[in-house]
Design brief:
The complex is a heterodimer of chains A (303) and B (276). Chain A is built from 13 helices and no strands. With 303 residues, chain A is mainly α. Classes of the chains: A mainly alpha (303), B mainly alpha (276).
């Protein structure tokens, strides 16, 4: 006689709920209530002092203000530019490094991996500091460039509006490329060796094999990287906080930095909350919708 | 993947890798070594490879600037967060597993939707709430904020590992008269070692390195290391001796832990991409 798998839920069984309850409470308290509360205070002139439901109600004023605030709009543009620059570099350098490391002997790559993943463990605020030191006008970058006869006028780093954003993107590449390498390595391992042999027998070159075999195999990994590190780029805060604080002339003012400054420097909590809602909308439009679409396509494929 | 082509391709490949290694290691090395250099030498270019290390920056940071205390605070927050996340994450995953509802299937969607919410969107209202309740400045505030952010992913990680365990195992434990909680602790939990390892390193590094929540939810008594370092950067000119020493104190422990838990770190990071 086959016994039914008896650990499962039965009517009136409370254990599963009791197990899930603490997490549910925690997430409700830290994420769900703040999300509603944050939306709520966006419609009020809210300060940490007194608060009156009718007196402080301002309707859509904060939202109107957002669209008339050139710094706020610029911060959205800066965030999107940062996101594009950061992700494309992460993927480009990450792919090259992952393929090259994969070609090494197993021993060599297992020695290299812990070294290469080190930046992932460094706090982003320290990443910002490290690069602040590197970009210092008397610092190591300009000494290095000086060896080639280049100076601060050729690459003004974080001191100029024109290059500040790319300087921050470079610092981000330094930290996140290892993540891409780890994920892509997992993808490369899964590609059957015979595919390459067949391709070479047919006379394909290394590049063509990469284009026709490696890339298609890696495409699900790219989706994941795009989603995970893409969302993180919208949230960029620490590196900018340490490197430029949003300057010069707001050229590195990401939407998170701007909302943070409005809230905790200008103590304008309700406007800061409105800005942060737009940050969430941006993350949703750029990465949430493509994910949901992709998920649906996959589910339909299974049917 | 074999490579064909001329011998010099192989040389170029090795060269690119060497440049990549230098690019990765040198910035970390400079900051750590600057902690041991005299302030004057930090500004001297090129940096000397061999120098007589001094410890005065570390002394100043640890004793005068109270980093000993901040180190302790960071450890309290990171360790408490990890314990909470692993316990609750395992419970929740087990609850979903034995409930066997459709909800489990959509858990990854729920997890991703949670990830789309920027920290700042949560932080502003959470700060107001915590402030009203008098909870800012306690260890409690950053610990539960970090836990709630990490829980969806860790729960999903635990769930996907539990699903990989053979069902016969659970049935056997039932036959032997184990209660469901007993079989979670005695049979399932020990088998989740890779998932628990990944959860520990991922949560530890998140909580130890996190800045934004900690910046607003702690006060001078409960500052974590990242907050204390952030206070150094506000100034127009940075005291690089002290800052480098502080950075070294913060990053070396987690790099060492990460080094020994390398396998779990990779498992945790790739689990999200391969199974998701």
């Amino acid at each position: 006689m086959k016994k039914k798998f008896n650990l499962s839920f039965e009517r009136g069984d409370l254990l599963p709920f009791l197990l899930i309850l603490p997490t549910l409470l925690l997430i409700t308290f830290v994420m769900i209530i703040p999300l509603f509360f944050g939306t709520f205070i966006s419609f009020f002139d809210f300060s940490l002092g007194g608060f009156d439901l009718t007196r402080d109600f301002i309707g859509f004023d904060n939202f109107v203000r957002f669209f008339n605030d050139s710094t706020a709009l610029k911060s959205m543009v800066v965030t999107v530019l940062f996101s594009i620059g950061a992700i494309s570099g992460d993927l480009f350098f990450g792919t090259i490094a992952a393929v090259l490391i994969f070609r090494l002997s197993h021993r060599m790559s297992s020695i290299l991996r812990p070294i290469i993943t080190m930046p992932l463990l460094v706090s982003p605020i320290i990443v910002g500091l490290i690069w602040r030191y590197i970009y210092d006008p008397q610092g190591i970058l300009y000494w290095f460039l000086g060896l080639f006869g280049l100076g601060i006028k050729d690459f003004p780093g974080v001191t100029s509006q024109s290059t500040a954003l790319i300087s921050i993107i470079i610092a981000h590449w330094w930290q996140v490329t290892p993540f891409v390498i780890i994920i892509l390595t997992a993808g490369l391992v899964s590609i059957p060796h015979e595919y390459y042999e067949a391709a070479y027998v047919d006379g394909a070159g290394s590049f063509r094999a990469f284009q026709k075999i490696t890339l298609p195999f890696l495409s699900p990994m790219y989706m994941v990287i795009l989603l995970i590190s893409g969302v993180d780029t919208i949230k960029i805060f620490d590196i900018i906080y340490a490197l430029t604080g949003g300057g010069p002339n707001n050229s590195t003012m990401s939407v998170n930095i701007y909302a943070f400054n409005q809230g905790f420097v200008n103590t304008n909590m309700s406007y800061a909350s409105t800005i942060s809602l737009f940050a969430m909308l941006l993350a949703f439009l750029l990465f949430g919708l493509p994910f949901i679409h992709n998920n649906r396509v996959q589910h339909e494929e299974y049917k | 993947m074999k490579f064909k082509g001329k011998w010099y391709f192989s040389v170029i490949e090795k060269l690119i890798l060497v440049i990549f290694l230098v690019w990765t290691v040198v910035p970390i090395y400079i900051i750590i070594s600057n902690g041991f250099r005299r302030t004057l030498d930090i500004k001297t270019m090129p940096p000397e490879l061999f120098f007589k290390p001094i410890f005065s920056h570390f002394e100043k940071v640890l004793i005068n600037d109270n980093f000993m205390k901040y180190f302790f605070n960071s450890a309290v927050v990171a360790i408490s967060t990890s314990v909470i996340v692993i316990l609750l994450g395992t419970f929740t995953a087990y609850g979903i597993l034995i409930y066997r509802s459709k909800f489990g299937e959509y858990f990854s969607v729920f997890m991703i939707l949670g990830k789309l919410v920027p920290t700042i969107t949560i932080l502003i209202p959470l700060y107001i709430m915590m402030n009203k309740m008098g909870l800012t400045g306690t260890y409690f505030a950053p610990i539960i904020a970090h836990s709630a952010i990490q829980l969806p992913f860790i729960t999903w990680l635990m769930l996907s590992f539990m699903r990989g365990l053979p069902k016969e195992l659970l049935e056997a434990s039932k036959v032997m008269g184990c209660s469901r909680m007993k079989s979670l602790f005695l049979i399932i939990f020990p088998l989740l070692k890779p998932a628990v390892g990944s959860a520990i390193i991922l949560t530890m590094q998140y909580s130890w390195n996190e800045l934004m929540f900690a910046l607003q939810l702690t006060n001078i008594k409960t500052y974590t290391l990242t907050v204390a370092i952030a206070k150094y950067t506000g100034a127009l000119s940075v005291d690089w001796g002290k800052t480098s020493a502080a950075a070294a104190i913060t990053m070396v422990p987690i790099i060492i832990i990460g080094f020994f838990m390398q396998k779990y770190l990779v498992t945790g990071l790739t689990a999200g991409s391969v199974k998701g």
